[in-house]
Amino acid sequence: MEKREKLYEGKAKIIYSTDDPDLIIQYFKDDATAFNALKKGTIESKGIMNNKISEVLFKHLEKNGIPTHFVERLDDREMVNKKLDIILVEVVARNIVAGSLAKRLGKEEGEVLPMPIVEYYYKDDALGDPMINMDHIRALNLATDEEMDKIRGYALKVNDLLRKFFDDRGIDLVDYKLEFGRHNGEILLGDEICPDTCRLWDKATHEKMDKDRFRQDLGKIEEAYAEVCRRVCEE
Ligand code: UDP
Questions:
Q1: pLDDT at 1 over 80
Q2: Residues 33 and 114 in one domain
Q3: Domain check: are 60 and 117 in the same one?
Q4: CA of 197 to the centre of ligand 1 (A)
Q5: Which residue minimizes the CA distance to atom 24 of ligand 1?
Q6: CA atoms within a 13 Å half-sphere pointing along the CA-CB vector of 160
Q7: For position 123, which CATH number holds?
Q8: What are the backbone angles phi and psi of residue 19, rounded to the nearest 5°?
Q9: d(CA 229, CA 116)
């Protein structure tokens, strides 16, 4: 698999075209941003850990009936993915109150929700990814109702699978963000799934093991990512 040209450089990743028009290479950087890129930094070896964690999680989901863009991990920082026409809706699923939900509803972080909550955000950095609902999605023609039904179903199934997966490893899956895209008429789960995009709390100590350590300057960021990587990647 040969890298051709850089198609896109984001905050944490670079996307390259390959000699196969159906496939791209995703390169994981150590750069981290928060608060819509107002806060910037690097987390040493983050790219290597997120690449490995995403590989394990995509394989687990794929094995359990979720179609994903994952093809193979190439090396430390690169994975091969099916090329997606990304749907501009970020899907957030939540099991425990944290982050923007705590603020929006005036609730304490840590309250366990009686059922998972699925939310949609418009993927637009210039607007700061505003929250939207199905009417906005229709009016902006971001996806069809049929596509969104499928996406919501996948998001809830991913939630069941990942909650159990992390629970078995002593971790509470608090919330996370998913992105989906179209590939040859199919909806596939894309992007990455890692401590940059999930909130993960140690079940025993309730310590944060995710990007909130960077957002909130809690220290021991590399250590937390390494511990997630160790627990996720061990057989
Ligand atoms: N999230 C993400 N990218 C975004 C926004 C949110 O990966 O652009 C993830 C975030 O890490 C958390 C979940 O989605 O696991 C819910 O985030 P929230 O809405 O609470 O926003 P935040 O507090 O992160 O601004």
A1: no
A2: no
A3: no
A4: 6
A5: 99
A6: 8
A7: 3.30.470.20
A8: -70, -10
A9: 25
